[in-house]
Amino acid sequence: MHRVALTAPDDYDGWRDAARRLAMAGVDPADTLWQVGDAPGDLFADDPLPAARRDGAFSVPRAFVDLAQKAILHRDPERFALLYALLIRVRARPAAMEDKAAPLLRRIDMLAKGVRRDIHKMHAFVRFREVAEGDATRFVAWFEPDHHIVRATAGFFVRRFTTMRWSILTPEACIHWDGETITEGPGATRADAPGDDPVEALWTGYYAAIFNPARLKTGAMMSEMPKKYWKNLPEAALIPALIAGAQQREAAMIATAPMAEKPARHGNAQVAWAALREEARVCTRCPLHGPATQTVFGEGPIDAALVFVGEQPGDQEDLAGRPFVGPAGQLFDAALAEAGVERARAYVTNAVKHFKYEQRGKRRIHQTPTAGEVQACRWWLGQELAIIRPRIIVALGASAARAVLGRAVTIGQVRGAAMPLEDGAEAWVTVHPSFLLRLPDPARQAEEQARFVADLLMVGERLKALA
Ligand code: URA
User: Fold this and answer.
1) How many domains does the chain have?
2) Is the pLDDT at 259 greater than 80, yes or no?
3) Residue 328 C-alpha to ligand 1 middle, in angstroms?
4) Is the pTM of this model over 0.90?
């Protein structure tokens, strides 16, 4: 039996080195025993492999490495052995990574998925409390992850809160950032973390402002913000009261019918929007954040009755950090002016907040976002709309329509008519200005442009009728 002692539960490097040597020596997965911590000796305490057989290397597909780096963070004690068994298979046949139905790969996929979900929750639900530390301030958060993700998430918090001094305390390990270096300490208890403080005002304001009773689904809230996290979240204190008041407010909204006055706006809407934009700045919900220069968030009055949703920022928007400022934006502005709709009074945003492109030489060529990318980014749009609560939302093009309606539509079939949304607003769908720019035939372009202006005119008229 080959016993491998790893230095920590998330010791991917230790696992990789050991697994590589065992595989080179042809050790059967059934003859390995993986453990963390107090096993005697070093990584190969009981390892009888001759030194010569420990040398060398072999390569595995990138997909295996990505999967293993996530799955190894799972709490399941079998993860090391499972990964080693998969490594042996993949080494013999790299295409084994494609056998998505194979039970071993499926099981490891599930582990990785659980870890990714846990990381996502930690990104979203860590809340800092401010504590005095001598003359300075430190922000301290308490969090209870399900898996061994604390080290893996440290980089995210460093990037996001680079200028703050902070500590994240968890039962397994604590991480501390002093503005320059990150250090790690032993686990802590809930009692080691501070209680409430003023930093929370921002968050409580944010959650109260986005809490729209017509959208209340306690089941959905539970799955988005599981109860086990509530005890560490300042906004959790608001939730029972918000739910209690929701039915009453919802009844009032129904009584006033879809097109009646908007409910009174929450005074903290501006704070909520600013907090949301800050959050979006560091969004990593999908891989598009990687190559993009920055998040391009929506802009315009946050009490706008009219919201335009585009597809995603283009090359110029990505550099400028503002939506619709490039060629499509210029065409859009001209069409709005022709239709008598003031852009300055509308809120303009995109379904996807990062520029997706393909680099060809020096040029960055626009690529249409996938349904998955639209879905990943849809959360931000939902939050923007929950704060703004517009009367009319105009989707420019198919990706925007998918984001606004939550399903794919054919523009030709839904164009020119209002579609009621659950919360009383109405959606309109028209073409994207870039579609007009791409039309090669000038006569066709003029015709389509006139149709676009006519759509905007209709929206303008509808808005006046609702006022
Ligand atoms: N196209 C869009 O959909 N949005 C922009 O912001 C720019 C171009």
Assistant:
1) 4
2) no
3) 7
4) no
